[in-house]
Specification:
This protein has 426 residues and is α+β, with helices and mostly antiparallel strands. The chain folds into 3 domains: 125 residues, no CATH class; 179 residues, no CATH class; 86 residues, no CATH class. Helices cover 29% and strands 21% of the residues. The protein has a 6-stranded antiparallel beta sheet with strand order 8-15-14-13-9-10, covered by helices on one side. A 4-stranded antiparallel beta sheet has the order 1-2-3-4, covered by helices on one side. Helix 7 runs antiparallel to helix 8 and helix 8 crosses helix 9. The two termini are 23 Å apart.
């Protein structure tokens, strides 16, 4: 394991104060799969990033990229996706596999975790630190380019049609647009840099939380009713946060009265200052409610993932036992899809499994069954007489898991449909 070297003479306390010349930051770190070399510097409001990723022990880089981000104002928040997407689509990255792209995301997350564990929230907001998160978003663009896109294209098409249909409706002057590429929690100073397109929503888990919040509040929270209405209108079971925010945009344009006017405490979206979704925590009326603040409060309810939730976060005991309603794209990376996929031999005498797709990246009690493969049809059974097919589920491969990264095989009717590499949330 290479040493983690960070050379920082000064860390800027505020992301927007970028006119000061900041010395070079350099991190070189390896895990059992990949070596990450990250360098950054900030001068004249331009963040310069140099990112190299290679297989551990090999000299040739899989990724070698220079990225310049002009941080003047907030304009870069609206074009950075195009910059990262264009670079990730370079022909040099054509041969990177889906599995490699996901593993590189995990390697970058390890780097971020090591580099930020002793920093304060304000230090983490430094452009040089945030450059690591931008590098992770770049790696996710490579991953996204490798992933099956059929379902997402259908969703994006519906989103475009719905947005076009409501674009001529009157919009209150104070209404923001939530359907941008960069997660608004970053702009509001709540989280580190992330793309809405990389954060996935488990509809049922999120709707359960919203419904429970509504039932527990002493007074109506119309912001939560908007979430409830929008989630119930979406047919997909999993979708991007960008898509969800676009649906909220369309809903507000159709129902401008829900945004409120005049005294915010008298109605509209605004709950109390201590409610989730209020950007702050105080007594009395909430003076700034934002969907991104509600999403942030739920994502960081347990102050995990640590690489996303800023230091100083305090866990909310109400949500400790909930299934996570949000995850990032590499946490469910299908490594292989199709016929001919099999668990590595020799098979164990028994194997643990989970029944639901959305349970894969959660540490939880698992089901157990004996496992046998029938050489006549290459299907998996739970008895050596081959009378009972293995129960449908997601099977944790013991020889390919290390306690943090797990490999799951989705087995249905005795055959493997997909093989996943999963990062477990603790």
């Amino acid at each position: 394991m290479a040493t983690l070297a960070i050379a920082i003479a000064t860390i800027i306390s505020c992301r927007k104060n970028t006119d000061v010349k900041v010395p070079v930051m350099h991190i070189n770190k390896s895990n059992d799969k990949y070596a990450v070399d990250y360098q950054s510097s900030t001068s004249d409001s331009v963040l310069h990033i140099e990112l190299k990723i290679a297989k551990t022990g090999e000299a040739a880089e899989i990724v070698k990229e220079d990225i310049d981000i002009d941080l003047k104002g907030n304009k870069y928040l609206y074009n950075i996706y195009d910059v990262l997407q264009k670079k990730s689509s370079d022909s040099r990255y054509t041969n990177i596999t889906l599995q490699q792209a996901g593993e590189m995301c995990f390697a970058l997350r390890e780097v971020i975790s090591q580099a930020t564990k002793s920093l304060t929230s304000e230090q983490i907001k430094s452009p040089n630190i945030q450059g690591m998160y931008i590098s992770l978003s770049f790696a996710r663009r490579i991953l996204k380019n490798k992933m099956p896109s059929k379902d997402e294209k259908i969703i994006d098409k519906k989103m475009a049609l719905k947005t076009m249909a409501t674009s001529s409706l009157p919009v209150p002057n104070q209404q923001p647009s939530f359907a941008q590429d960069v997660f608004q929690g970053y702009e509001l100073g709540l989280t580190s840099f992330a793309m809405n397109d990389d954060i996935m929503v488990n509809k049922q888990a999120f709707l359960t939380i919203v419904n429970n919040d509504i039932s527990m509040l002493p007074n109506d929270d119309k912001g939560l009713y908007v979430f409830q209405d929008v989630l119930n209108s979406i047919s997909a079971s999993n979708f991007t946060l960008k898509y969800l925010f676009a649906q909220i945009d369309a809903y507000i344009k159709q129902h401008p009265e829900n945004y409120g006017s005049g005294n915010r405490c008298a109605g509209g979206w605004w709950p109390s200052g201590s409610s989730h979704g209020c950007c702050g925590n105080y007594n009395g009326c909430c003076w700034y409610w934002h969907p991104a603040c509600y999403v942030h409060d739920i994502i960081c309810a347990n102050c995990k993932p640590a690489w996303f939730c800023l230091s100083g976060c305090k866990p909310d005991v109400k949500y400790v036992h909930y299934i996570e309603p949000f995850y990032v794209i590499e946490d469910y990376t299908p490594v292989e899809t199709g016929e001919g996929i099999h668990l590595p031999l020799p098979l164990p005498t028994g194997i643990y499994y989970k029944q639901n797709y959305n349970d894969m990246n959660i540490i939880m009690l698992q089901f157990y069954t004996p496992i046998f493969i029938n050489p006549a049809n290459s299907k998996y059974y739970s008895d050596n007489q081959y009378n009972n097919l293995l129960p449908n589920g997601y099977y944790d491969s013991p020889s390919e898991s290390n306690g943090i990264d797990h490999t799951y095989y989705n087995i249905v009717n005795g055959s493997v449909l997909k093989r996943y590499r999963v990062f477990l949330q603790t």
